[in-house]
Amino acid sequence: MRKRREFVEGAFYHVTSRTNDKIRVFENSLGRKIMLMILQDAKYKFHFDLANFCIMPTHIHLLIRPAHGTNVSLIMHWVKTHSAKRWNSLHGSTDHMWGNRYFAGIVNGQQGFDAIMDYIDQNAVKAGLVEKPEDWQASGAFCRDRNIIGMVDFPQAVDGVCYGVPPGVSKLVPPEQLDHILKYPVAYADALERLSGIVPGIPKNVATDTTKQPIYLRYFSRTADYRIHAYDGQDLLFGKVRFNAYPAEVEYQNFSLSRLKSIPFMQLDFSWVPDT
Fold first, then answer.
1. pLDDT above 70: percentage of residues in the chain
2. Which of 44, 54, 165, 218 is the most buried (most CB within 10 A)?
């Protein structure tokens, strides 16, 4: 029989868990995004402090302090169960995503805390995935470097502006989609950064021959697809719309941004790369 785990209330724990047979579940951005969202949901549910974390292709590292009334076992059981359910749902499988056991070691003193912080930060660097810890998006180092709040809690960033959705980008995102992004800022950080670089370069006016103009933004709903060539920076967009019921018919027109965002189930496509 396995020895029952004993936990000390108020202590930090270095927790690691590997995938089943070291399958590279988190090698791509989709796998890491799923895990980031699960960790964020776990924080809302269990209210634990997350000092640091790193999501590697085959395992995760967490530096956590459970809140009163919870413990590492409760948290990890929830995290592993729900991440596996979400992964299997997306891939139509019933596979075991995680190995059976996780490691949880208590952190002793400030020196031990600092050592574990650095160890977790250096994981992606030592694996050759990035040159600097803060370049690995699925990590606490990334959050601290960009002052992304809501994910890591200690040490808490106090300098600089809280990283959220850049104003020029948030204005373009439909409300329900924006609420979702604000709940999971780390999962969308790369896309937000890319869009913040694209938006200032969108022309305010488009030449007559629209077929030769780049498409900078794409919106889509259940009924239509909107591809944007120009944006005046306020409320006027120009582009083409293709309705799903009549895919052969394309119409170029001006759009009111506020009206476009109010269409039910409208989404801004974060994966769209502007034509060049």
1. 91
2. 54
